[in-house]
Amino acid sequence: MTFELTEPILLIGIGGVGSRLVDKAKKSLHCDCLLISHDKKDLTSENSIKISTKSVVNPSTHLIRGSTLEVSDDIKKNMGKYSTVILMSNLAGKAGAGIGPIVSKICKQEQKNLLSFAIMPFKFEKERIFQSGIALKRIRQDSQCTIVVDNDALLDSNPDLTQNQCYNISNKAIESMMYSLKSSEISDDTNIMSTGRVNNDIETSLKDSLRMLYEDAPPNSIKRSMLYVYGGNDVPVGVLNTISNITGGTFDENSTHVEMSSEESKVVMLSSIQGETKFDKYDPLGIISQENTIDWDEPECSIECELDLKQLE
């Protein structure tokens, strides 16, 4: 099945990364946007919702999530007139992991057509792995289509990159994807986005994308792969045919989309995944089926409870 983008469209950016991505994506899609964050610095648009954690300066993911529930009616009201919601969140951050599952659940309750972009943390960010895995699992369940960008896989396939270089490559890949969203077909369910550094050699860029993809999912789990080639005006037709043959020999089913733009030359792959990915292992309790889980319906959160309890001695 193919994800269908229906207008009117609302872009929702969560936290700092989500807000910056939405600011650029809205120009490509010509649609409205909504920014949500607990940090006022992230809210650069008039149409925004500030999550109040009151006097807590360094709130936990659970506290941010609990505070988001208090403004759920405002979030619901802002998305009321839209058919499709595009949710952009960095699950490596506390805002993305905390707010994302609440927003995706509201979209499901309101029967919105939801496309989610989720950015995953580096594996050395051990304190963020568990929360990002839980948040991704919930967002995937609520979304018609989820596109996952894994910074850790990008770093593993290019170990000489710095963190900021990884962020820049991932963000530019998402921006390119948003530019092509209205003219391309995307498989519903879960998709892994893979790419490489900007390289005049398109074949090398393709190989970087394949290495990044295989860090996240085994080859036999890939159902379908879309290949986006940017800088197409400057790429020889013979090279395009070669990279099409490479992907054709790698996957059972493939399709090539050439974006004729003057952007830097690069390849972005979008691969539909069936079965387990490495993100399923981020939650050690993920092997327990939902039928045997008693607290799955409501995301874990912290709420303020003022109980007048006397001290016992």
Topology diagram in text:
Elements: E1 2-3, E2 9-14, H1 15-29, E3 32-37, E4 48-50, H2 61-69, H3 72-78, E5 84-90, H4 94-109, E6 113-120, H5 126-142, E7 145-150, H6 151-157, H7 163-180, E8 186-187, E9 189-195, H8 202-216, E10 222-230, H9 237-250, E11 254-259, E12 266-273
Parallel strand pairs: 2-3, 2-5, 3-4, 5-6, 6-7, 7-9, 10-11
Antiparallel strand pairs: 1-8, 9-12, 10-12
Helix pairs in contact: 1-7, 2-4, 4-5, 6-8
What features would you describe in this structure?
- The chain is of the alpha/beta class and 313 residues long.
- The protein has a domain at 1-143: 3-Layer(aba) Sandwich (Rossmann fold), CATH 3.40.50.1440.
- Helix content is 38%, strand content 22%.
- It has helices at 15-29, 61-69, 72-78, 94-109, 126-142, 151-157, 163-180, 202-216, 237-250; strands at 2-3, 9-14, 32-37, 48-50, 84-90, 113-120, 145-150, 186-187, 189-195, 222-230, 254-259, 266-273.
- It is globular and about 75 Å long.
Highlighted features:
313 residues, alpha/beta, Rossmann fold, ten-stranded mixed β-sheet, two-stranded antiparallel ribbon, 9 helices
Mean pLDDT, to the nearest integer, reads 82
Stretches where pLDDT is under 50 for at least 5 consecutive residues are: none
Counting DSSP E segments of at least 2 residues, the number of strands comes to 12
Name the CATH superfamily classification of the domain at 1-143. Tubulin/FtsZ, GTPase domain
Strand percentage: 15-25%
If classified by CATH, what would the architecture of the domain at 1-143 be?
3-Layer(aba) Sandwich
How big is the Rg? 20 Å
Shape: globular
CATH class of the domain at 1-143: Alpha Beta
Q: Which topology of the domain at 1-143 does CATH recognise?
A: Rossmann fold
Question: H/E order of the elements?
Answer: EEHEEHHEHEHEHHEEHEHEE
Structural class of the helix and strand makeup?
A: alpha/beta
Distance between the termini: 64 Å
Biggest sheet descriptor: 10 strands, mixed
